[in-house]
Amino acid sequence: MFFWKRKKEEKKLTPEQIEKIATEYTDLVKEITGKYLPRRMRRALNRAKGWQGLSLSERKKQIQKITENGVSSWLEETTQETIEQVSSFIQESTTFEEELRKALREFKKKWGIK
Questions:
Q1: What's residue 107's pLDDT?
Q2: C-alpha–C-alpha distance, residues 60 and 66, integer Å
Q3: 22: exposed, middle or buried (C-beta count within 10 Å: 0-12, 13-18, 19+)?
Q4: What percentage of the chain carries pLDDT values higher than 90?
Q5: Are 75 and 113 in contact (CB under 8 A)?
Q6: SS3 assignment, position 58
């Protein structure tokens, strides 16, 4: 009878899964950011292509970077960069940050990322 838990192996994500995670997360960030930005900036945000606008070689570099550092750290880094870039334009920066962090937690839970 064993009383200790077996250590679970971390699941390796395929490049297609990583790309899907990145696409979904950028869309989520766009949606949340759009609520807080002024109208003109929202329109510019909608024109930005995000993950889909990257060339194939840039996508491969990003995917390689994500696999090396881990999906969780990439999500945290992306969230922090977004907060730093956008907070100067937003009047309610604390509520924006809270909502973005909450969405990040839910997104990680949805995908099973630790």
A1: 96
A2: 10
A3: buried
A4: 42
A5: yes
A6: helix
